[in-house]
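User: hey, got a sec? need Pseudouridine synthase folded
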Amino acid sequence: MERLQKVMAHAGVASRRASEKLIEEGRVKVNGTVVKEMGLNVRSSDVISVDNVPITQEQKYYFLLNKPRGVISSSDDPKGRKTVVDFFSGIDHRVYPVGRLDYDTTGVILVTNDGELTNQLTHPSYGVEKTYIAKVEGLINKKAISQLEKGVVIDGYKTQPAKARIIDINPKTKTSLVELVIHEGKNHQVKKMLKAVGYPVEKLNRDKYAFLTAEGLLSGEWRELKHYEVNKLKQLVDESYSS
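Assistant: Yep! Here you go:
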């Protein structure tokens, strides 16, 4: 759900402040009823009209990008670096990333203009799983994996229990491949967790977001989510909310 005045602004009715004035003047209806309450949240299915003329709500778009290294997970960057949104310059709609991936982290990131779903997917209480594959320094052991699974202390807080497993250990290069599944999204969390158990990250890739992968996409390529995939994401957050 999004605030009424925000939906009106996105639909091109007026600026957000001017939309608030229209609401105050009693010129806006939601599902046939005059609304004067400021900050009312509306759904995409609600019928909104201004001076009895229905407005068209912004169509929602959902994309999956296989993010390359050296790209900022933001809508813009003051330093002029490339952002994930730059890959969608040909899309005639304002979109933004769902959450973030570090500058040097690769893999799955969602891009959309659905503010409601973005807030739900990025809120830790909904517990959406993110799966990472990390190449770390050192030959990781089962004790470290057990610590990751129980939660480790970083930045003064203990992380939630995670799923972790060893994919490969390379004695020649003295590196290991580790899969880590987390529900949170703290800043640099995966890197800090692995460093906390003694294995700094050399490379990091988000292999999966919920059930979505970058299979079939080269680095920098993207695709639009299928209708059933969007519905499945919404179902995941609905189930998390009700549980």
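Quick note: The chain has a mean pLDDT of 92. Let me know if you need anything else on Pseudouridine synthase.
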